[in-house]
Amino acid sequence: MAMAAPLTLHLLLALLLGSSGPSRAEPERDSLREELVLTPLPSGDVSATFQFRTRWDSELQHEGVSHYRLFPKSLGQLISKYSVQELHLSLTQGFWRTRFWGQPFLQAPAGAELWVWFQDSVVDVDKSWKELSNILSGIFCASLNFIDSTNTVIPTASFKPLGLANGTNHHFLRYAVLPREVVCTENLTPWKKLLPCSSKAGLSVLLKAERLFHTSYHSQAVHIRPVCRDSHCTSISWELRQTLTVVFDAYTTGQGKKDWSLFRMFSRTITEACPLASQSHVYVDISKNSQDNVTLEVSPPPKSTYQAVVLGVRRTYAVYDLLNPATFSGSRSLNLQLRWKQQQDSGGHLVPFLHAQRYVSGYGLQTGELSTILHNTHPYRAFPVLLLEIVPWYLRLYIHTLTITTKGKENKPSYIHYQPAQDRLRPHLLEMLIQLPANSVTKVSIQFERALLKWTEYTPDPNHGFYVSPSVLSALVPNLVGTKPTNWEESPLFSTMFPISDSSSHFVRLYTEPLLVNLPTPDFSMPYNVICLTCTVVAVCYGSFYNLLTRTFHLEEPKRSRLVRWLANIIRRIRGVPPL
Amino acid sequence: MAEGIMAERGRMDRVRGDRHPERDRNQALTALTMDPEKIRGKHAALCFATMAVMLGLPLWWKTTETYRASLPYAQIGQLDSLLLRLRVPVSVVFIQGSLPIVDQQKLPFTVVNERDVPLKCKMKLKCRFQQAYRMAGSHEERALKMDTIQEAEAALPSPKEDTVGSLNIFVIPEKSSLLPQDKMSYVGPKRTAFVRGAQGRQALTVIGQRVLQVAQSMSLTDDVLAAALGDRLPEDKRSDDKRRPLKASLGYEITFSLLNPDPKSHEVHWDIEGAMESFVQPFLSLFGALGNFSMDSQILYYAMLGVTPRFDAASSSYTLAAHSLPHVINPVEARLGSSAASLNPVINFLLYVPERAHSPLYIQDKDGARVATNAFHSPRWGGIMVYNVDPKAYNTTKFPVKVNVDMVQVMEVFLAQMRLLFGIPYPQMPANFVLAGPPSEGLRSWELDRLLWARTVENLATVTTTLTSLAELLDKIGNIVIKDDVASEVYRAVDAVHDAIVELAAGNLNSAFHASREAVTSSEKAFFDPSLLHLLYFPDDQKFAIYIPLFLPMAVPIFLSMIKIILENQKIRKDIEKVD
Which residues cross the membrane (chain B) (predicted)? Predict the structure, then answer.
């Protein structure tokens, strides 16, 4: 079966060339690959990861006039105007539960995340960053214009360029997370518009907003980076990767069954490949099927399978090639279905070697504690983890309270970079390289004090709380099985996001939950109350003062009625005083 | 003590009043007016009122005032009734034999003619033709001995005064064979023209009129001005198609888009790189003075028109009726992608290759006839051309069909549309004029001059409108803040307007244009400065809510005592009159 994959690829290439004939004599300068990976998750959910990769063989910076074909014009103009080296933008709703769902291909923090490497020719990086985020905010209809110096940091070690890079001087890097950002249809529509086939053909037909946002996790991203044009790497090409990951709750929507089909998830089926794509694949993870034990069944039966070590684990995928007309031969459309043959035991899944949690503790509105718990579940190998914490300035960290404990003992980080916050100017940045011993739990905690904000600095719903962006974990996690170096250009897209350095480990970047912290919140009608109270006091004082100064006082003889006089006289007579 | 005295006096008054009611009343009245206690109270109340008016009001006024730097209101007011004198230097060269010998002696050096251009607003426009007469030099004589007028023109030495905005008119002998017999004048592609001379007594006057006619048609004519000024012209000179030119701007982005809604049937190739180099670049290089131009091109797939074309059975083709054209653009525009890199206006040129199911597709004009170019343009937006695929290409089994776009045909249409969009209508000449074809770049030099004139006038009119409406707004809305930098922009704009007027009157077209552009930039910067809006939305009801708790309790006693004092004074005056 393993041999079948390259064979179909050759067949496909032949078909492609044959169909277009001599017209492709000159090599196309850009190409599109699209793929969809469907993974049944251990918890019974189904994750679907779309990747659309547009590769453009062009030195974008050095041309005066640009001619765009598959690469979107708006992004191309951005790269050349702001001399962007690399751009990574993700918009995410929900949280990827690594412990239950396993390692993601590419996780993103809840909300919006943007990190950009600028080229070393950029003089004023901060200005370019500000303008770039404003323009991106316009392109993707997201609130990226709220990125300013109070939530931008310059990480020193955690974010390295993913593509080709000459130098890694981190002064050309900017990183920002907006955990408050709510992602919705208006962000998806412009993202879809960047696809060459729009949402008219190919895999993008499945991208129906009302289904995609009816999910437990939705993450859409744009990654732009320079890559090698060929194996000699003498010139560069630009790669635009648009990824979209959704997690469908198949278990509850499927009445307790974990079976799923494309139609049930997306309410669409695939009818044709995008005619512009040079490769269009659907992968279904069937690793649960072992040699002797067939636990699940996919229909229609796959023409080929693909085996690879993905994220350190050996996996088997059923491959459907949409450019191969045989895929659609049975029916007009492809409606992939997966049926479980037997209920598998839920406890048997492999917990990822690295996962983390984060929470805020303490009581009252003055102080508190941020704790991050890092798990290394590898039975015998220790590995280092780069932990990046960005804490807004209104939580004042007490850096002397930073404690890192593993198995009850203090764990001294081998590298610490701490940049204290400045009020209303920049956030706290804490980067640490921590060694996680095998099979251990490490707790990183730091205490903080809550600052008082000015009353205009509060968000419109201050009692909702203030978000603290998630901590970022970057690590080289040991593989369960060794990998062989593969041809980067030919392997599926989902395995080529991060460069593979060696065969015994793989790179993982994880994000913890964003935190919600309550700050001391004033009563917002207070200023008006104060005004009213002060004015009343002033008015009362003024009034009596005024009265005292302007009134004239006369003594008036009290007027008494006859009845009163008669009563008074009776009393006087009793007392023996002469009557009135 | 005081109370005791008052009580004593009160009792005495009462006792007295009992005895002589008539006389005592008068006495009481005088006592009331003279009562030192009453007078003291009155003075105190008056004192309070004076303090409130003299101290409180100015303090309140000063502290709640919106800041306004001083602006040149008087100068802005004068802008409205500007008098623009456009000086057009015309050098008139007489060839031997074109003028009677008698007239040669009394040939004046210069003659000035003025022509009023009617405008709707108060602004006045005067074209001032300054004609400098001289006899031809020997080499000019030699050049005009050529057989055809084109050769003669080519052989002419480039005159010294061939600057932007000037004209050279050669008067050739009446019987010259350079021009066809029935034609009086020839207008060349450069800033040169030829006019037939005259003989007889009134020769000089006749020639003068002819020269003036040529000069007028080569300088700012009404149709060019109409294109630039749009709604500022009198009603009878305005028409809908005059509104198509783009507004003057610092730069323009030109985007050529190829729309291929059916990539499964058509594989469209267009040589846009070559076409831009050979057609668009030379054309735009002439406009260098007008602004910066940046160009790019893109190919959009699955981009549909918003209208379903109607099938015409007679010709077995599809038609787009003229009335449905407005609906074509909107859905396409969503895909075009806004220009991310700059704020300049975008001019779109779309080449639409209709899908196979709807081809061939023809555009019908209002009368139902096919449009020869199969293209239309949208004012201030750009142009669309439908490019039909040769139906013979479908006689194949191989799809997609390769389509090679004939760029010459396409660019002819696009360049013609570009001329219209920039406001260079086809020159209209009197019947007895010979109009030379444009040079290879596609634009006659004097047409460019006319455009510069028109743009300068347009810019000045725009500045006038902007500044006048700013002044009006400031007059109407008191909450607008004018900071010092905004004020300095206004001053700069006003100064630049005056510079432009001076330069126009001096005949320096280029510097006048630059000054007018500077004026536009400054005035727009001032008008659209965000600081103008800072206090604009501070509603009055909130102000009252804050003021009332303080002002009401303070003001009411003052008012009441004032009323009381006034009433008492009136009463006393009446009583005194009665007593008298």
Answer: 544-567
